[in-house]
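INSTRUCTION: Work out how this chain folds

Token vocabulary: learned, describes local backbone geometry

RECORD BEGINS BELOW THIS LINE
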Amino acid sequence: MARTQPRLTEVDPVWKRICAEAEAAVEEEPLLGSLIHGGLLHHDGLEDALAYRFALKLSSGEMSEQLLREIADAAYAADAGLCKAARADLMAVYDRDPACHRFIQPILFFKGFQALQAYRVAHHLWSEGRRDMAYLIQMRVSEMFGVDIHPAARLGQGIMIDHAHSIVIGETAVVGDNVSMLHSVTLGGTGKEEEDRHPKIGDGVLIGAGAKVLGNIRVGCCSRIAAGSVVLSEVPPHSTVAGVPAKIVGEAGCDQPSVTMDHRLRDCGCDGD
């Protein structure tokens, strides 16, 4: 008799850890039992949990939870890359955010992670030609989470958006892998041009709170943009820029600034030392 292949969820250490954390959380805080069972323990895998959360948070009188759940389920079934990206995003938050102590926190409580996963479903729909539905999801994500990412924008994996309030990412923006950004970041245009008009952010970039990167410019890999900066010109790889308008003030200071999350400006006369 042929041996039955194990289901993915039976050999998935990430999902097993999520479930173990969820069970422990219910014991610690029984009043959250319904939320945690409904959001995590009731499901067979991460894809199901993400689809449930997507539908629960974005449903409205204009689009029911049931219809949104069907849309999300179909997207995850059609594109394995969605859950692969979600796992990378989850690990990014866990590794880089000192406020994140368990895998269940981003899924249940962190709007940056939830908004990013909703964008990924909208981007899938956009790529399939379902643009009005993608716009609807963009609108609801903006209303619910204060995060406005155009569904045509292209975002890589391992993205962390910390706090995530007032994030704006335009239609032709490209964000590489393993990028970290804080609240109030804008990746925007500089006028009414209709073609390729938004920034291209390289892998491993750290973007500080309130930074604005404007226009079709490139920000090189593993660079840092200081909080409150306005970037209007190209940023070389492995460098730090700061100011309004932003200027190069030194090197990035490490190989992976988006992972170390060190926003301090050293050896550039900017920190008062």
User: Anything to note?
Assistant: The mean pLDDT is 93.
